[in-house]
Design brief:
Radius of gyration: 29 Å
Helix content: 40-55%
Distance between the termini: 48 Å
CATH architecture of the largest domain: Orthogonal Bundle
Number of helices: 24
Number of strands: 17
Strand content: 15-25%
Largest sheet: 6 strands, antiparallel
Oligomer: single chain
Shape: elongated
Length: 576
């Protein structure tokens, strides 16, 4: 078991496989300088522009402006607020991300953006996850909203095309941030994203809820459109977007659930509009309202069709309470288009009240599971509501030959082996020598083994993922940990490290002169270290010639790049 798991004991077993060690030693002095620059800039701006909980939440969540946080420390600091923190390896599926949050765990990507991407990166990084998300979680109502959102979002069904798009976006974002990808690789990845994007033609509930998440938790504002305050993590963690969000060029729209879920977004571009909620209570009401439209709430044939299009693991809950977890392969329908039989493919498990039924895990139903849906012929009472006498009247007793005919035309015929009950009601009837047919179509043949009949007139809920995640995903491998090999810092990283030491322990004049000389001769375009040196020297009458030299060099660097110009000017302003 890796150290990250032992440090975050509240992580459920099925989520532990996504957890990795932070490997704090991997952060270079340049990484630390990037963190410090972004945090200083954002704190200076956000102390007035953000929700009031932000500034206090920074300290309460274990975050320092001066250094990249240790996520284990954050895990402890967030505990009084009902939260924990865990390191993950970059992009994880949306269902998994929401599942972490439903359990009160903030998943944090431990990588940090490159200096060249200091203003914004589409790839998850520790600035966004830790400095963006964590502080506001200390606000009680917002914390309630995010946990509730996690519970609901983890059940949202996506289409297969959306799953494919997620993988393409993950590859593209990681290439952009890696700094080692060729132009050709990036162009190919971008083309793949565009191709996958074009294939997504359905607005799924997963896409709708991801939009709600994006325009609230990631890019939300609160208050009034005339005087909004920032609370979204994307705005709190981006040097550029946080500032730009308050400019007139970014349209402010009063929060409205329908508008939000019908407004798409592009993670690679600045947002042209933002939604302003009145309060976090308004968001809680909105996500509860959205839940009423989801397959997990509505059930029925339409929900089964949604799961079929997803091509991924889902859970199907019958009116008896029986839950079937697997990947839906086929749906048989009647003349009115209503589902009368469903079948999963591959490993499937049965559960009740989110606990796997003993003997009915994936190893037993390794080749799928089929189940009729609907009413039995000539019966007023649903099968799941029948008492022992009513069951016997239909031939449902252990050892008896039994023939069950459904109104749909599905016929189940075999020898009853066992009746499984929960709360004195039948949920599963096991047959031997069983045949299931719909007209001339054989749905189950006696040679296939025992047939376990799912009891339940209706499928009342369909949701993404497993009913008992701990058991269903127990055999999945952990995310491969990137090997950490301690390396020597580059000459530039060493210079950053020396300046960092001076800021903490006092300036070493001879060493500072040497560093300035080395910067001048070897690193003419590095702006951030020069800004850090000016911060040390600004209040000093020492090295006036060197101060003038650095100032001149920064003016020359500004001319080379408009973005550098803005970053330098903002850095020097805080150095005054």
């Amino acid at each position: 078991m890796n150290q990250a798991i032992t440090a975050t004991k509240k992580i459920p077993r099925h989520l532990q496989k996504y957890v990795v060690d932070q490997q704090y030693e991997k952060y270079s002095p340049i990484d630390q300088a990037v963190w410090r620059y972004v945090m200083r800039q954002n704190h200076h701006f956000l102390k007035d522009a953000a929700h009031p909980a932000y500034t206090g939440g920074l300290k309460s969540s274990g975050i320092s402006i001066e250094r990249i946080p240790n996520v284990d420390d954050m895990n402890e600091a967030l505990s009084p607020f009902g939260w924990g923190a865990a390191n993950i390896d970059g992009f994880i599926p949306g269902v998994v991300f929401f599942d972490f949050q439903a359990h009160g765990i903030l998943p944090i990507a431990s990588d940090i953006r490159k200096l060249e991407n200091i203003q914004y990166t589409p790839a998850p990084d520790i600035i966004h996850e830790a400095a963006g998300h964590a502080p506001i979680l200390c606000e009680e109502k917002f914390s309630e909203y995010v946990k509730l959102f996690g519970e609901i979002g983890s059940k949202a069904l996506a289409t297969k095309e959306e799953h494919d798009l997620f993988e393409a976006v993950r590859t593209y974002s990681n290439l952009l941030e890696s700094g080692s990808a060729t132009k050709e690789q990036i162009e190919q990845a971008e083309a793949e994203v565009e191709k996958r994007q074009a294939s997504v033609v359905e607005l799924s509930e997963a896409e709708q809820i991801s939009r709600l998440y994006w325009w609230t938790v990631e890019y939300g504002m609160i208050g009034t459109v005339e005087d909004p305050k920032i609370y979204g993590a994307g705005l709190l963690s981006s040097v550029s977007e946080g500032r730009n969000s308050l400019s007139p060029s970014v349209k402010k729209i009063p929060f409205d659930l329908e508008k939000v879920i019908n407004t798409s977004f592009d993670i690679t571009k600045p947002q042209p509009q933002l939604f302003v909620c009145e309060s976090f209570e308004q968001l809680i009401d909105a996500v509860k309202e959205f839940r009423k439209t989801m397959a997990s709430h509505t059930g029925g044939t339409a929900s089964l069709e949604t799961a079929l299009r997803s091509g991924h693991t889902a859970t199907f809950q019958f009116s008896s309470g029986l839950q079937v977890t697997g990947t839906l392969e086929t749906i048989e329908k009647d003349g009115a288009g209503e589902a009368v039989y469903m079948k999963t493919v591959g490993p499937t498990a049965l559960a009740f009240e989110n606990k796997e039924i003993i003997g009915h895990g994936k190893s037993h139903h390794f080749d799928g599971f089929g189940a009729p849906i609907g009413k039995l012929e000539n019966t007023e009472c649903p099968l799941e509501e029948m008492n022992d006498q009513q069951l016997k009247s239909l031939g449902i007793e252990e050892g008896a030959d039994c023939r069950l005919s459904y109104e749909s035309g599905v016929v189940v015929e075999g020898i009853v082996k066992k009746i499984l009950k929960k709360n004195d009601s039948p949920i599963l009837i096991s047959f031997t020598d069983c045949r299931v047919q719909l007209g001339d179509k054989v749905l189950f043949d006696p040679s296939w083994g025992e047939f376990d009949l799912a009891v339940g007139e209706k499928v009342v809920s369909v949701f993404a993922g497993a009913a008992d995640s701990e058991q269903f995903y127990a055999d999945l491998e952990e995310v491969e940990q990137k090997p950490f090999e301690k390396r020597e810092w580059t000459p530039l990283e060493q210079l950053y490290g020396e300046v960092r030491e001076m800021r903490n322990n006092g300036a070493d004049i001879p060493a500072l002169q040497r560093i300035i000389g080395q910067l001048t001769s070897e690193f003419p375009h590095d702006w951030l270290l020069r800004v850090e040196i000016m911060e040390i020297l600004r209040d000093s009458t020492l090295l006036l010639d060197e101060q003038e030299l650095i100032s001149k060099q920064l003016e020359e660097i500004k001319i080379l790049d408009e973005e550098w110009k803005v970053l330098i000017e903002r850095g020097l302003k805080l150095a005054e």
